[in-house]
């Protein structure tokens, strides 16, 4: 008989060998609960693990069984997992598998040679072995998005993983049978964004195509109704009426319309009205919204109050020490405690800065000592990133002056609130109350040099 430890170890080994990624902690917990109590319901498992029943039943469990079915080559579920793994173990031993589970052997983690490195740019692909789960943000998003009329707001500085998280929310809901559409507002022309009617028509037209429906704006758009009412009618009477399942819309880079405060306020108030309609209207309960914005652009208070005070708001944070160690391990790098501390000090746990460092450290193009000594040199691995930030600051002299004060100070200093929030939104400083300090050593060294 296969015991619990052998079963979990075998499952982990097979998943890693197939995908290059380990099971998540929550997947392991669900697997353990299913193994130990095959008669337990998902409601009971969810209660013991401290999650909502719908999240476990509709999200985690189906994804887990689908994954195990793929790696084991047969249908796997909560009731047969014990039998399937035992049969697989016996088969491995009989066939002389080169890496069977023997006794209490720990699962073999693939070396970096078996994983193709990815240059860190843009979103992290769904199948990437280098994606680090944003605990607890992902779980909260998965739990929230299954609720009727759900609204999620994901915000963070650039290159912090907002889009990577949003595509996983869409993938999660697609597995539940939801229809999904993702629209990046960077694709809209400036002239389009500056005109409410043009923008809402562009918005409705593109969402129709993303949902694979023929755009029929002229059938629902009426001058006498006005742009907002016409757009509402189009969604309610056409898009939502045509599709029976819930629909999840992810709107990326919504900060693109912040430059037009009146348009932004009208648009966000429209989205908020749809969210409010879902409290009483069954058809609007099918619509789930995910708004993603970069916090480099300061959010005016009147726009903030239009939409972002409802639903679930997620502010992505830098990686923790454990997450950095996990990411390094996935690159085949075993960091000592002092090396981990040096890398954290340099990058502040910023996901992009870390991935870029590990990309160059993995094939030994660069040593950790060299990286620590000259991270901001020209040309250096961070030069493009640092130049982009410097260019933005040069367009906003007041913010640049505020950062200059921070990097020159020997201790956290007090800033005007608006500049503290702007620099924090860019990821350049951390705020402790009303006092600011640079978020990582890389930024402190670079900007102290160029602003001196």
Write down the Rg: 25 Å
Quickly give the structural class: alpha/beta
Helix proportion: 40-55%
Number of helices: 21
Q: Strand tally, please?
A: 8
End-to-end separation in angstroms reads 70 Å
Largest sheet: 5 strands, parallel
The whole-number mean of residue pLDDT values reads 85
Q: Uncertain segments of ≥5 residues (pLDDT<50)?
A: 98-114
Order of SSEs, N→C?
Answer: HHHHHHEHEHHHHEHEHEHHHHHHEHEEH
Sum up the overall morphology in one term: flat
The oligomerization state is single chain
Entry keywords:
single chain; 452 residues; alpha/beta; 5-stranded parallel β-sheet; 3-stranded antiparallel β-sheet; 21 helices; 8 strands; flat
Describe this structure in words.
- The protein has 452 residues and is of the alpha/beta class.
- Helix content is 53%, strand content 9%.
- The chain is built from 21 helices and eight strands.
- The protein has helices at residues 4-19, 25-36, 42-49, 53-72, 81-95, 137-145, 162-175, 190-193, 196-210, 217-220, 227-242, 261-277, 301-307, 321-330, 337-347, 351-361, 368-373, 383-394, 397-408, 417-425, 441-450; strands at residues 151-156, 179-184, 247-252, 287-294, 312-315, 413-414, 429-432, 435-438.
- The strands form two sheets. A five-stranded parallel sheet has the order 2-3-4-1-5, sandwiched between helices. A three-stranded antiparallel sheet has the order 6-8-7.
- Helix 12 (261-277) links the parallel strand 3 and strand 4.
- Helix 2 (25-36) packs across helix 4 (53-72) and helix 3 (42-49) packs across helix 4.
- The longest helix is centred in the N-terminal third of the chain and has 20 residues, at 53-72.
- It is flat, with a radius of gyration of 25 Å.
- The model is unreliable at 98-114 (pLDDT under 50).
């Amino acid at each position: 008989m296969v015991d619990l430890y052998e079963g979990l170890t075998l499952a982990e080994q097979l998943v890693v060998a197939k995908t290059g990624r380990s099971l998540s902690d929550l997947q392991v917990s669900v697997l353990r609960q299913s193994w130990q109590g095959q008669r337990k319901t998902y409601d009971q498992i969810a209660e013991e693990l401290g999650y909502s029943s719908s999240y476990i039943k509709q999200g985690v469990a189906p994804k887990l069984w689908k994954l195990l079915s793929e790696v084991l080559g047969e249908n796997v579920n909560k009731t047969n997992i014990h039998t399937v793994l035992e049969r697989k173990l016996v088969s491995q031993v009989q066939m002389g598998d080169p890496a069977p589970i023997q006794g209490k052997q720990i699962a073999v983690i693939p070396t970096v040679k078996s994983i193709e490195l990815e240059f860190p740019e843009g979103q992290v692909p769904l199948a990437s072995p280098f994606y680090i789960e944003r605990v607890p943000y992902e779980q909260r998003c998965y739990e929230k998005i299954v609720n009727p009329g759900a609204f999620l707001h994901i915000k963070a500085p650039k290159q912090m993983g907002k889009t990577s998280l949003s595509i996983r929310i869409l993938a999660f809901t697609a597995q539940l049978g939801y229809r999904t559409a993702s629209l990046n507002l960077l694709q809209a022309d400036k002239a389009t964004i500056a005109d409410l009617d043009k923008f809402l028509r562009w918005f409705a037209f593109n969402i129709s195509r993303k949902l694979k429906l023929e755009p029929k704006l002229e059938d629902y758009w009426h001058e006498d109704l006005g742009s907002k009412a016409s757009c509402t009618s189009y969604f309610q009477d056409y898009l939502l009426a045509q599709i029976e399942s819930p629909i999840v819309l992810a709107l990326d880079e919504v900060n693109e319309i912040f430059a037009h405060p009146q348009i932004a306020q009208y648009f966000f108030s429209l989205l908020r009205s749809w969210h409010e309609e879902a409290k009483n209207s069954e058809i609007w309960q099918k619509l789930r919204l995910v708004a993603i914005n970069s916090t480099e652009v300061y959010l005016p208070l009147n726009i903030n109050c239009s939409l972002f005070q409802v639903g679930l708001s997620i502010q992505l944070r830098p990686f923790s020490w454990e997450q950095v160690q996990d990411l390094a391990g996935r690159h085949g790098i075993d960091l000592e405690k002092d090396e981990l501390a040096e890398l954290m000090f340099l990058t502040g746990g910023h996901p992009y800065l870390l991935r870029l460092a590990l990309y160059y450290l993995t094939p030994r193009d660069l040593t950790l000592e060299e990286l620590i000594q000259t991270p901001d040199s020209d040309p250096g691995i961070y030069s493009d990133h640092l130049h982009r930030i410097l260019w933005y600051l040069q367009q906003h002299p007041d913010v640049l002056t505020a950062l200059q004060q921070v990097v020159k100070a020997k201790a956290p200093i007090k800033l005007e609130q608006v500049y503290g929030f702007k620099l924090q939104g860019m990821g350049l400083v951390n705020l402790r109350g009303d006092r600011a300090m640079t978020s990582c050593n890389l930024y402190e060294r670079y900007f102290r040099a160029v602003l001196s």
